[in-house]
From TrEMBL:
InterPro entries: Aminoacid_DH-like_N_sf, Glu/Leu/Phe/Val/Trp_DH, Glu/Leu/Phe/Val/Trp_DH_C, Glu/Leu/Phe/Val/Trp_DH_dimer, NAD(P)-bd_dom_sf. Belongs to the Glu/Leu/Phe/Val dehydrogenases family. Keywords: Oxidoreductase. SMART domains: ELFV_dehydrog. Residues 181-408 form the Glutamate/phenylalanine/leucine/valine/L-tryptophan dehydrogenase C-terminal domain. This is Amino acid dehydrogenase. It comes from the Bacteria. The keyword Translocase does not apply. GO terms for biological process: L-glutamate catabolic process. One of its GO terms (molecular function) is glutamate dehydrogenase (NAD+) activity. The lineage of its organism: Bacteria, Pseudomonadati, Bacteroidota, Flavobacteriia, Flavobacteriales.
């Protein structure tokens, strides 16, 4: 696996597109790791201090993810080094997408990512640049459909991602109009835990869980884990957190989800970040869902959880461990050798899978069909890993080996 990983990490990307904004200090990159299958896909992010290397590592991560989610295309990513809180953001995005639109028409598909909203920014701005849909390049490069077929599938994509959830099993509150895009990634993180226990043995009911991050992914993961009968004993978010060693009830977790302030946890009993960060790693929990930013978890923190009751980690964040390596650094390897670590490209593939699902010909557009498709994709990936290595350790190592054999 390490030899395959080294080959894959060191391979130069096929295309690097570099842009410097004429009106601000913004600089952007689209890195296309490969045009496997004739196209490449990956979202657009914006943050101050972002560089080309970050975009490259994310493009390589996307390519591994596509081996699970489909379609069988190359990985790509776009990144803009600019402060997303700057009032000039909209103009920067408009000029960026205009510059990159020839790629989006031909062989590159994009979407939302960190600080760039799919529905309110990516779709309307790319439309103004003459792109039918941000995924049009994947259709043209990979699927090469007839014009009529392309119209049908782009229609599915447009409707599907912004589809308002109507089924009370999937939506915390149908009157609040939560969409597929709001909930699917966190749902996948929870489903990965559910399928882990059904395949490797055990029952999620009554297991204690810790969730790191309470944004879109973490709050949805907590909601669905609690719905399955897991007991959330600790939540750590950037502003603070909560602990209940007996576990919060499903109703309490649902209330926390509905009472979020924007994308952060809000609760009258919240303790400070310093206090929660001191206490949460000393809790007894079988399940850990890291769903905050990348590269946060230290070796000491994860060791503390492993030394207690930890059984399984389902990664909502890409590369949650504080390693500098793109994929498989020493903290991740240390963790993988001691507990069941479901890698990010399986557990958080929900949104990528939704895109792949809607690109297929005439799919069912019900909540059940969309969510069950993501669930089955994750189940199949975990089953495939189990079939190659039935041990409860080295799951990530095995999953990477399975994926990289398709890419190297």
């Amino acid at each position: 696996m390490k030899e395959l990983l080294k080959l894959y990490e060191n391979k130069e990307p096929e295309i690097v597109f570099n842009w410097k904004d004429s009106e601000t200090e913004a600089e952007g990159w689209t890195v296309i790791n490969s045009l496997r299958g004739g196209a490449a896909g990956g979202g657009t992010r914006m943050r101050q201090g972002l560089d080309q290397n970050e975009v490259l590592s994310l493009a390589k991560t996307m390519e591994v993810k596509f081996t699970v989610s489909g379609p069988p295309i190359g990985g790509a990513k776009s990144g803009i080094n600019f402060d997303p809180a700057d009032p000039r953001k909209k103009g920067v995005l408009e000029r960026w997408y205009k510059a990159v639109s020839p790629l989006l028409k031909s062989y590159y598909g994009t979407g939302g990512d960190l600080n760039v909203d799919e529905i309110n920014e990516v779709i309307p701005i790319t439309e103004d640049c003459g792109v039918w849909h941000p995924q049009e390049g994947v259709f043209n490069g990979h699927f090469q459909p007839t014009e009529a077929d392309k119209i049908n599938r782009i229609g599915q994509l447009r409707q599907g991602v912004i589809k308002v959830l109507e089924n009370t099993h999937f939506s915390p509150d149908v009157t609040r109009k939560y969409t597929v895009a709001d909930m699917i990634t966190g749902y996948g993180v929870a489903e990965a835990v559910h399928h882990y226990y059904s395949i490797y043995g055990g029952d999620i009911e009554g297991k204690k869980a810790i969730v790191q991050g309470f944004g879109n992914v973490g709050s949805a993961a907590a909601y669905y884990l609690a719905q399955m009968g897991a007991k959330i004993v600790g939540i750590i978010d950037r502003a603070g957190g909560l602990i209940n060693e007996e576990g919060f009830s499903f109703e309490e977790i649902k209330e926390m989800f509905l009472n979020k302030k924007g994308n952060t946890l809000s609760h009258k009993d919240m303790i400070s970040f310093e206090e929660i960060n001191e206490k949460i790693w000393k809790l007894d929990a079988e399940i850990f869902a890291p769903c905050a930013a990348s590269r946060l978890i230290s070796k000491d923190q994860i060791t503390s959880l492993i030394d207690r009751k930890l059984e399984v980690i389902s990664c909502g964040a890409n590369v949650p461990f504080a390693d500098k390596e793109i994929f498989f650094g020493p903290i991740m390897e240390y963790t993988d050798e001691r507990v069941s670590l479901i890698p990010d490209f399986i557990s958080n593939c929900g949104m990528a899978r939704v895109f792949a699902y809607f690109m297929e010909r005439r799919v069912q557009m019900t909540d059940e069909a969309i969510f069950n498709d993501t669930s089955m994709t994750i189940k199949n990936a975990i089953q495939n890993t189990f079939d190659n290595n039935s041990s409860k350790t080295n799951i990530s190592k095995t999953a990477f080996e399975v994926a990289l054999k398709q890419l190297v």
